[in-house]
Structures are given as structure tokens and as C-alpha cells.
Amino acid sequence: MMRRVRVGIVAPGSRLEPSTAQRVTALAAERHPEVELTFHPQCHLSSGHFAGADAARIAAFLEIANDASFDAVWFGRGGYGSCRVAEAALPKLKDAARKKTYLGYSDAGVLLAGLYANGFEGVAHGPMPADITRDGGDAAVARALAYLSQRAADALEPSIAPSRKAVAFNMIILSQLIGTPLQPDLTDHVLVLEEVSEYMYRIDRTLFHITSNPAMRRVAGIRLGRCSAIPANEPDFGQTEVEIVEHWCSMSGIPYLGRADIGHDAANKIVPFGAPRFA
Amino acid sequence: MMRRVRVGIVAPGSRLEPSTAQRVTALAAERHPEVELTFHPQCHLSSGHFAGADAARIAAFLEIANDASFDAVWFGRGGYGSCRVAEAALPKLKDAARKKTYLGYSDAGVLLAGLYANGFEGVAHGPMPADITRDGGDAAVARALAYLSQRAADALEPSIAPSRKAVAFNMIILSQLIGTPLQPDLTDHVLVLEEVSEYMYRIDRTLFHITSNPAMRRVAGIRLGRCSAIPANEPDFGQTEVEIVEHWCSMSGIPYLGRADIGHDAANKIVPFGAPRFA
To answer: Are B169 and B195 in contact (CB under 8 A)?
Structure first.
């Protein structure tokens, strides 16, 4: 008999449309019937920018994370708001929370960072339910389900290897964690970075910030995911995102390791934090 | 005989138009003949986003800062680029550089922070030559000249008092210095913050970052300057900038001290770093 995998979905940042949840549930039933998805009603709350007030988002996250009957916490969507949840929620996580997988990216990286900084071993950067609305988004969601249920090796970013620790973040999200208690120790990790909808000069500034932090200079190297939907720089920035990363790697002494197959798109592969556990 | 004050202008970030320099020179001749302005030719160089290549901006900054015949370094304009100058330039500053006044804001805050972190006592946040192009910009430039030449008390932000240390920064600029060697020790300082052209959710995220840094939690309090040209948030953020600052002050235990008269505008008053020296 197939082992059922119970996945609870919460939205620590922006709100998830009920229709999106329905599409993801239908796709899971068809492609991964071994996965049982539970969208917490909090996902569909609305409070200004957020999927419900801070207290509601904190409570929903803790409810799923601390419930031993769930195998994984899947973040429903990015947007913005996880930083309003992290400091209050993380100290309230119990032993049941340590045994789970946590999957998400973008704004949810705030919680991934905080969980990893607190020694959680099941943290991973990868697609979320909201990705189903992207072009080709079914593949992104199916990839996440394959990882959540089977740790499918072909769901992983190709450079991921059992011998080497890695993490992945949106650049500005990582930048805004530096110097806070949410910053994980990334010594000897490959740091995989991606960005979306930021001006080239801001990508440059954010990489200055990341590579100027003494603890960040202890990473094993940086890999660059996709930088997409970059608004036109005025004047033209004159450097590509690769040249920018190469510049800051050179300035900081961090090895530049090449490109990575992650980004704010349907092709976004999974990067488990730490040394990956394969199926 | 009136003492002449020699002010050298460099542009560590974006390029300054020659016509802007001419307008500022004319205004100084009329309103502050005691001030002798020297626009370094580097101000008008162009290299992609920047006023010349990194090496040219570093060299110009060092040339003026290390020249004992100048009383002050005035940053010509913000934009972006000071973070590409700071790490290389700061260790090369000599004794002559320590005796000077440094005035600027926005992107130039990167250098103000690094100078202050290195014990420089003449650092101040206030108008730059490029402000002459703003509506009412003559007043901003005249205020800067009055400060540079006479430490004019009426040029100062009204809450500035000799008994209390202060600093001022653009929020995102300060955020992107946290955890780097450029972050100054702001224990017991009033931290005055302003922002321009950032979405409300980003103002919220940046204040999360600033107030979550343990060293920042030792400030005496936060004062909020103007947050201008805020793009429409989708959905509406539901909180004003004052409510956002109050939220993060409350979360972090930092006292919120009220509004301040600084911002990306012609009314921008001067905030000397540390305890101010009056005329």
C-alpha cells in the first residue's frame, strides 16, 4: 500500500486565491494521489497586503508545523509578509515541527532561513502552489509534489550533490536577513541566488550587501539562478547579472560557480538546504 | 577678513550635469561668497550607471579627502554607486581626511556610514549640489552652504540638540549596510530615517531589517523623516509609514520619537552625525 504524505499549506505572506488551491488539489489528485493536501483556511484570508493579520498567519503556521500528523509545510505563495511572522513564530515550534519538510521560495525564504538557522534539517527552496498560475506552472507544482512525496532526484537543481551543502534564496530576501537572528550560518555552503523585478543597480547593491558580510564570505561559492523581469535601467547599467556577480565575487574572494536552474518561473528546480537527502 | 571655506565636490554614485555645477557655483558666489567650490572633473564622467568607473570615483574621492587645503567633501549627487567605492577608498584616507566635513545623503549615506564607523567626526546628512534642480532647490543648496561655511544652527533638523547623538539615513541604504564593516555603532543615537520611491511593503520590510539587527536595537530611538513618491501598493498596504514605524518600534523595543524634517526634497534639513558642533 502506498504511504500517504500529508502536506499542510499556509500562506505567511500574501493571499492565495481559493481557485488556485482547487487547481493544485486537482493536479495532486491526478499526478500524485499519494499526497494529501490540506490548505489551511488562513491561506484565503485577507488583511491589507497579507493573507490575514499577523496573528492569524502566525497561528496557522504554528498549527500545521506543530501537528505531528503532517509530513510537510508547504508555503502557498510568496508576495510579502513572512518577516512579520518569523520572530514570533519560530520560538514556538515544537519537536513535531523539526521532523517536517518545509518548501517554498521568494518571501517564504525568510522562514526557510530562520528554520535552517535553528537547525531544522528538512528545509528546501522550490515551487509553491501559486506557481500553478504561471505559464507551464503544472510542471512546477508537480515537481514540488514529487519532491515532497518521494524526494525525487530529478526535481533537484542539477548541481546539487550529496557531498556538498547548499542553500538558495531570492537575493533581496537574503540581504534583508543579514545581521538579524534569522541569518543562517552558511559556512561551506554553495549559495544559490535568484532575483525578479529588481533594477540592475539594485541587484548590484544587493550583491554588494551579501558579499560584504563577513559570515557570507565563508560560503563555498555563489551560483546564479535567473534574474527575470528586470526593469529598464536609466541609464543602461552596462553590466549583465553575470558580470555583476563576477565583480562582487572577485571583490569579496567568494568563488563564482556558474549558473543555476532556479528562478521566479515554472522551471524553478529544488534546492534542499544543507546536504540533500536523496530518495 | 572673511575666512574662505574650500569645498571639494565629488560624485561617488551617479553623474552630475555640468549645468548643475554651474548653477550651484553661481548661487554660492551670490549667497555665500566665503565658500569656494571646486567640482572635481570626475563629477561629469560617465560610465554606465556611474559618474565614471569605480577606479575614477575612488581616486577623485581620495584626492579631495586627502588634500589638506580642502575643508569639506560635498557629495555631488546620490543615485547609485557609493558602495562600489567605500571598501577600497576608506582604508586609504589619511589624517587630512579626518579633519574635514562630509555632507550628502541618499546613496552617499554609504560613505557617511563608513566614515562615521571609522571615527570621523565631521559627517553630516543633508542637501547636495544636485538638489538645486528640485522645486525650491536653491534653498536646499543655500542651507548646505550655510552649514558648510558657518555650521548655521538654523540649517539643522529641529530636533537636533547638542546633548544628544544623532544620525540620518535613507532606509534602504542603511538596511544594505547592516552586517557589513560599514555599519556604524549607533548605540544611544537618535536614528532619523527617510525614504523615497519605495513601495509601502518594502518600507515595511526594510524597517523589519533595521529593527531586527541586535546592534540597531541599542539606538536611543527612531525619528521618521518624509517618505515620498511611494508607488501605489497592490493591494493597498493598509498602514501609513508612521503606523509601520510604530509597529516595528513596538516589536523591537525601540522608542518611536516622532517625525523629522528630512527627506528627498528641498526642505531636507541637516543632521550632523554624533553630537553636533554648533557655530
So the answer is: no
Amino acid residing at A157: E
Specify whether the CB–CB gap between A123 and A109 falls below 8 A.
no
Q: Are B258 and B190 within 8 A, CB to CB?
A: no
Q: Is A136 near chain B, with CB under 8 Å?
A: no
Beta carbons of A212 and B180 less than 8 Å apart: yes
B191 φ/ψ angles, rounded to the nearest 5 degrees: -100, 115
Q: Give the contacts of B123 (CB within 8 A, at least 6 positions apart).
A: B101, B102, B112, B115, B116, B272, B273, B274
Tens digit of each residue's pLDDT, chain A (279 residues):
567 999 999 999 999 999 999 999 999 999 999 999 999 999 999 999 999 999 999 999 999 999 999 999 999 999 999 999 999 999 999 999 999 999 999 999 999 999 999 999 999 999 999 999 999 999 999 999 999 999 999 999 999 988 899 999 999 999 999 999 999 999 999 999 999 999 999 999 999 999 999 999 999 999 999 999 999 988 889 999 999 999 999 999 999 999 999 999 999 999 999 987 654
Contacts of A238 in chain B (CB under 8 A): 47-49
* Among the listed residues A172, A252, A268, the one whose alpha carbon sits nearest the alpha carbon of residue A219: A252
Q: Which residues of B touch A182 (CB under 8 A)?
A: 212
Q: What's the CA gap between B239 and B171, in Å, rounded?
A: 17
Tell me the sheet residues that pair with A228.
Answer: A196
Q: What is the ipTM of this complex?
A: 0.96
| H or E element in which residue A124 lies | strand A123-125
Cβ of B179 within 8 Å of Cβ of A182? The answer is no
Q: Which three cell numbers stand for residue B53?
A: 568607473
- Taking CB atoms and an 8 Å limit, are B83 and A205 in contact across chains? yes
